[in-house]
Amino acid sequence: MKRNELFGAARAARDRLPYRAIALLIPVLVVIVHIAVMAFTLPRQDFTAMLGLMVAYMLPPAGKETVIPVGIALGIPWWYMALSVVMIDVETGLFMALNFDVAYRLPIIGSLLSDLTKKTQAFLDDHGWLAGLWFFAIVLMVMVPVLGSGGIRGSVAGKLLGMSTLLTFLAIFAGALIGCFGIALGSEVILAHLCKTWILPADIAGLVCSGI
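The chain above was modelled as a monomer; its predicted structure follows.
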């Protein structure tokens, strides 16, 4: 079979798949790859800790300003911790961007999203200048430490502002990169300073400073 025929067959097969199946499958595949990479690149103890931190980040009240310093204190490299949280924002933002309508019909999650939508709308109403920034408004909302996953909150804000799916996703990605790496690098510097100056109690320093 010729190359063009192969591509044509692949496109035809893709077009026959329902949109919803693809929209649900893509975020799941990204999560599977993310977890597989962590499993191969982290020691078992750190991998288990990272899974716990990922779940904590998804469920408020924990946010990136909490899980990133905790992960670094547990010995996970600052850049690895930052990338992992970025990926969570990417994964949740991708799922919400592609399946916004479905998410609201899920039990429990739907009511939580409805509540988050009301809070996000109130936030935008109270900060009217954000609406005029469009793309950068989402970047700021994801970048600034606020409880819970920035990907979900950014997707909701993008819909409320009438942004396209692609622009919303790009804004979430940019905000996650800036926010996560900023917090991670700052946490690394602060923890290193605390360990060098022996400010931390001996028992805590023994746990935290061994990996710094």
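The CA atoms of residues 140 and 183 lie 14 Å apart.
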